[in-house]
Give the backbone structure.
Amino acid sequence: MNKVYVIGMGPGAYEQMTVAAVEALKGCDVIVGYTVYVDLMKKYFPEKEFMTTPMRKEPERCRLAFEEAKKGRVTAMVCSGDSGIYGMAGLMYEIGEEYPEVEIEVLPGVTAAMGGAAVLGAPLGHDCCMISLSDLLTPWELIERRLRAAAQADFLIALYNPSSKKRKDYLARACDILLEYKEESIICGIVRNIAREEESMNILTLKELRNTEVDMFSTVYIGNKMTKIIKDKMVTPRGYRYDRK
């Protein structure tokens, strides 16, 4: 049977790709993906054929991958971070119904929430959730409901897509909702360009975060009542009991 891999390539560094992902890409004939992500792969797999589509052309990208796989070529669809978390795996299965002769294998990757958390320290040490502030596919009213539910339950929150040129005030709007249930002093963090050369981090309070500019290359972390700063890192204790000596 013809085959297509759906591969999570991690946050950006080759070293953070899984061994399984690297081995699958080595065995592929063609690599398909969003232009920005494919450009990151070219220097590591220069001998491969690459095919791309721009943003908002995801269905076309999926069909491009399936059409190559139909020809008997081993094909990889690459996604930033994890292939299933805000990735292409779900859509590939949906469109894959049109291609019953093509087998799909999903390979996970280090998603932004995990990669950025490691940079900050240990902010996601207890129950957590991920919420995207992009309303391209999800109505803002539903995003607001999810923010309120997470804040009321004191979840640790990783915010994806916190801002863009057309959504400059979305993070501030999200913070206003969170501030209805959380204290201004709650510890938060921002990591930009995770695992890339321009990587940077910032730890601040929820009040300060509300007036901080971020972009689409940023992942934002909202702490819970237990989150604190230890050795300049953002840490959420899990609650282990231990004796200090």
About this structure: The radius of gyration is 20 Å. Residues 35 and 232 are 36 Å apart (CA to CA).
